[in-house]
Amino acid sequence: MELDYKVVFAKRKTLTITVERDRSVVVTAPEGTSLEKVRQVVESRKLWLYEKTRHAQKYNPLPHAPGKELVTGESLLYLGRQYRIELVDDSNHIQFAQKFLVPRSVASKPSLFRTWLMARAEEKILPRVAIHAKNLGVEYKEAKIGDGKYRWGSCTPNDNVIFNWRLIKAPMFVIDYVVVHELAHLIEQNHTPRFWNIVKAQAPTMEKAKMWLQSFGNLLEQDI
Q: What distance in Å separates the CA atoms of residue 36 and residue 215, rounded to the nearest whole number?
């Protein structure tokens, strides 16, 4: 059986293979690598790739909850918990006080709430990147919040780390796991036993975080 995969060439020294959440396979190879060399590496990992792309718990799509509406009584996921929405008249800004106080003028514009969530992601996730990088003894060029479709985080060949803004909906121990996971790639590019030992040492709740993402990751994918 043929295995479909996408090849991306980048300025890096090693070749890596990634299975995305949509089951697609991406091979990132050093510039100048021949397609035949890529094919040989993929062939050598074919059994592992078939196992990964058919992993029911991690990759089978879970039913998505109905889209959320910004109405009083609705609840939204934030830092691992559901918080109630309350529409208010006397404000122009979204506020959080163990519930979401949403101006009625914003209620019909979900994109404004998404902007608010992205700002909270920058505020709460990026400082964790700095802390964990210091603890791991690694340096990155830039850390930023992005809108990746299939990844919670990524570490680029240029040593930038990017995190999906939707992570702000997850508990902090999950955020910490994703942050440490990407920073660990600055030490070990592939998912070797050494890599996982590094991650687990810095994020001891790694297995709990992975299970949370497997169970509830689909809920994070909603825009609000």
A: 38
